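Why do we care about 3D structure at all? Because function follows from shape, and shape follows, mostly, from sequence. That is the central idea of this module. The next example makes it concrete: a single protein chain, its amino acid sequence, and then its structure expressed as tokens.
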Amino acid sequence: MLQRILVAVVGIPLLLFVVLWAPAWATGAFLFVLCVIAAHELISAVCGKEKGNRWFGLAGIMGICVILLSAFSGVEEQAEFATLVKWLLAAFVVLLFVCVVVEYGKPRAISFLDLTTILVAGIAIPAALGCLMRLRMLPYGGGMLLIVLVAAFCSDTLALFAGMLFGKYKLAPKVSPKKTREGAVGGLVGGMVGMIIFRIVFFLVTEVQLNIGWCVLLGLVGAAMGQLGDLSFSAIKREYGIKDYGRLLPGHGGVLDRFDSVIFAAPIVWLIISSVTMY
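And the structure:
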């Protein structure tokens, strides 16, 4: 617990600086790093360390391309660059399938499981994280991106304490033995309360009044999807017999251990914000 708190004390201010005060390219660079590390963690967990070390680079490059496309989506001034990135991404996907064919039947052949894991690590996860970049490019982008983190992390925090204090009935014992239904409800409440507090702080800083109904909904849906993400990545860990995806963050594990909820919450939050009038 002490390690978790110390990492949070150092990590949260740094994350807020990148999201709120640093230029947008810093958020992009941060997401590049997350995608590369997450690719290594997922491929190593599912396919083994040897294949993880061998293929995470290709998956990471694909992920960077996806983040770049998210950053320049709809930006007319960067249309030519975005087109180039699309061709590069297509070329790397083709290269992956060429490797599948060329190495078939050899000791280091790429199985269908390897292939799908690399594609999830190189495209699906970066596409979800790319929604953070899409939010960052909106007006008041730092605040819009922060909505995902508030919903996911407040849910995680209150779910932990609610489970410790009131936990009695197991939520999904075969997936995550320590999680309880009471903790899950606490997590939903945490997401909504966190968003109400965020709305107040956002107004004090920007003098822009966010719609209270949409804020509460974003807190609820973001928390629910965050919990689903946590359970989904826990199911992978259980299936492949690992405790944590990595050791990057003491007390928290790896990138996928800490940002699993964000990966699931980011797309739905972006879909809602891009579809409604927030202020």
